[in-house]
Design goal:
The complex is a heterodimer. Chain A has 4 helices and no strands. By secondary structure, chain A is mainly α. The N and C termini of chain A lie far apart (163 Å). The longest helix of chain B has 52 residues, at 8-59. Chain B has 2 helices and no strands. Chain B is mainly alpha-helical. Classes of the chains: A mainly alpha, B mainly alpha. The interface between A and B is large, with 47 and 52 residues.
Chain lengths: 147, 96
Amino acid sequence: MTVLVVLTVLEIVVLIAALAFYLFWVGTLLARIATNLEECAEIVRAIVADAALIGPGAGHINETGGVVAGALPLLYGMAEEIVTDVTPRPEAPAEPEPARPASGTRRSRLLHAVGFSPDLSRTNGGASPRDRRPPTADPLRPSQLLR
Amino acid sequence: MHTLAMNSTEHTLWVWALIIGLIVLVAVAALLSLLIYLVQIIDRRVVTVRDTLKAAKANTADTVLIPQVAAGVDAVLAEGLQHHLFLGRVLGKVKS
């Protein structure tokens, strides 16, 4: 009988102690979670306050940027027109020169070998400075070469 | 002290009650342990959420610059209008 009473009291005490221990533990964890969640709520409110600036600001920038982008072609068109008007134009020659090849006239060694020097002064003949010597006083004639 | 007389049936029932109480105690401990385990998971996840929110707050902290950028773009537009007026005046003088 006494043993049963003692065991009963002991069981009740252990049950109450276990409940108290677990409840204290759960209470501690829930308090920490509540603190973290409160901090999360504050952070979320701060993020919402920061994000509230994005929409109107981006719309404003988009609208003003569109106006600037539309006005820039007008500005550089006016600038080009001014530059065109103030740039001096070269005067056109009275008699246009005939078109000549930029490379000049090719010199011929065959003609040079026979002593014939064509007049290449207008185009310089494409000759090197070595070939710009004055012609010799007595150029060779083909009849002399055959001799 | 009075001693209470108890027959064998009552004794057996008391013992069974003690055994059932012990089982209930173990079950309560197991369920509370499970509750503690789940609450600890919730605690870790809440900490993760808090850290993520802190990073998001740091990312959105510079949005206060957006109105300043809008004001700067407005200034660019005003300056462009001044250029437009200037080029209009110069173009009229050049053509004349």
